[in-house]
Each structure stands twice: as structure tokens, then as C-alpha cells.
User: What shape does this take?
Amino acid sequence: MFGSRYKLFKLFGFEVRIDTSWLIIAFLLIFTLARGFFPYYYRGLPGITYWWMGVVGALGFFGSIIFHEFWHSFVARRYGMPMKGITLFIFGGVAEMEDEPPNAKTEFLMSIAGPLSSVFLGFAFFGVKMLIPATASLIPARGIVSYLSYINLILAAFNMLPAFPLDGGRVFRSAVWGFTDNIRKATKIASWIGSGFGITLMILGILGIFQGNFIGGIWFFAIGMFLKSAAQMSYQQVLLRNVLEGKKVGYFMNTNPITVPPSISIEQFVEDYFYKFHFKMFPVVEDGHLLGCVTISHVKDIPRNEWNQHVVKEVVQKCMPNNTVKSSTDSLKALSLMRNTGNNRLMVIDGGTLSGVVTYKDILQYFSARMDLEDYVKK
Assistant: This one.
């Protein structure tokens, strides 16, 4: 979902970050407010006034999204769910959960908290607007506050649409989950509806483009495509958790991994290991003892014409925590580590000894096999 992310600040223990895609919507929103929304509703103001109204309005909108996501996070933490933080991206914001809610009640309370907070902000901004005198000098302030009241109510209404993984879709899933006591079935139904809603938006977007509303059509299509993809991905994540629950890394690891002896030359390592197996990282082992890891980036520190003059032992480095796990590590945690670090291959180390290697492919192949035999596997 995300590309490069940058930390903005940390509040109440939650880290708030922005994805680079957020810059696109930030620019478009400021431009739309400054050149369209505010000039249409508040005529006769200087051009520069519309621009600063657009900037403040956009900041207020994204502040509202953060407030909305904070309430999801507050409730989640209240019920013992670990949260990675909050990220602003092109389609708004998301509170990143490390796991699914433990039960339907928690799902409902966590999901409904966001829209309720947006409704609260909507009426709060409306109350502030009513307190601002309707004088010419305060028209810009009234305009910004009025916009923030309006947009928060729209945000609440949109999020309550029963399209998973929107808040309304999660509320719907919690209801089905509570009725069936089966999160997998509830997610499957909710994701169907979410995918259908996404496809509908995509169709409306295409129709809008053909009718001349190019920008609006593109946004409808993009949001629909995002919802469809997010709904399907959410269902796949639930399936993955269901299949891998309780499985340890030791179950999947290769106990006879490719290892590199420390005495060979850098040139031999590149030719016989890197070019042959295409791994980004190799464990270096001597007499059964793990010395560390070697990667192609370590090799690049040596000039090419000197590769035959140096041995692997000279460039080996300690295996970092982000590329190692224990055999007792939960497989879901190992997958999360792979996704967060971009390492698709982890060294399995127990007591300083290399027990094996586990890869992203190994775990997903097991998942795929279980799905192929889903009807015959006892749930």
C-alpha cells in the first residue's frame, strides 16, 4: 500500500507518518480549495487570500484525518491491540494494526470510533463558525471553519459506507462476525461487498470520463480500484493468519541452507554463489559456527580488480536483527519482518548457531498448498 514514508511527529505513543503519495492529494486539495471551492462560495476576496485559505483548509482537513485515525488507535490500544502508527497517504489516512481485532465487539468499537470522532469535529467546527462574527474581515476564517465542518461530516458519511475495509465495512463485518462467530466467513462476505463497491466506483469513473468529467472520473476510478484491491488483500490476510496460526519458523525453514566458507576469495564468492543462487545475503559458516553474513553491498566496498586478493572473512559482518529470527519465532511475525524490511530471506539462528534459512517463498507455497486443499483441510 505504501511507498517511502517519513515521520512527522509522535503523540500519545503513536507515530504519525506521511507517505510520498500524500503530496499529490495535498497539492490537488490546496489547488481545488484555492481556485474552486472558496472563490465559488466567498466571492470578491483577493487572490492571495484564497490561496492561504486553501493551505489552512488543507491542513485542517489532514488534521481531521489524523484525529479520526487517532480514535481508531485509542480504542484499539484500550483493548490490547498493538498499533504500528498512523500514515497519511494519497487516499487519506490509515491506523496500521499489527493484527486483526480479537473479537467482534472490539472490531465494532474500534471501527465506529473514527466516524463518531469526525461527526464530533463536524459539529464542533459548526459551533465555532456560529461564534465568529459575520464581518467582512472574518469571512475567510468563517469560510475555512465552515469547510472543515462540512468536510468532516462528509468524511464520516463516506467512511460509514458498508464497503470493507472502510469503517462502515468493518462495522458490517463485526455484525456478521458476531452472528456467525467466524471471522473468516465475515471477512469473505464483507470483502465481496467492498470489492463490489469498488467496481461500481470504477464504472462510475469510466462513465464520468466519457461524459467529460475527466478529473472526477479519474478519482472515482482510482478510489474504486483502491477499495477493490484493499478488500481482496484484507481477505487474503485473514486467510493467511488462519492458515499460519500457531506455525513456527522451524516448521518452514530449510535446515540445509547454502552457506559460504570464510576462506574463499571475493571473486569466487561472486562467481560460485552470488551469480549462481541470486540471493542478496549469505550466511558465513566455519566448522558449524556462524561467523556472520555477507551481502553484495559488502563486496562492492572492494574494488573489482582486487576481488581475487581478498577473502570473504574480511568483509563478513554480524547478521543484523532485521534479517534473523529464531526457530521458535511465530511465522506471522517472520512474514511481518520480511515485509517491513524488504528481506525475503531470513537466517534462523538459535544460540549463535545457524539452524537454517526461511524464505518468503517457502511460507507462501505452504499457504498456497493449503488453499488448494481448503475443502479437505479440517479448519
Q: What stands out?
A: The chain has a mean pLDDT of 85.
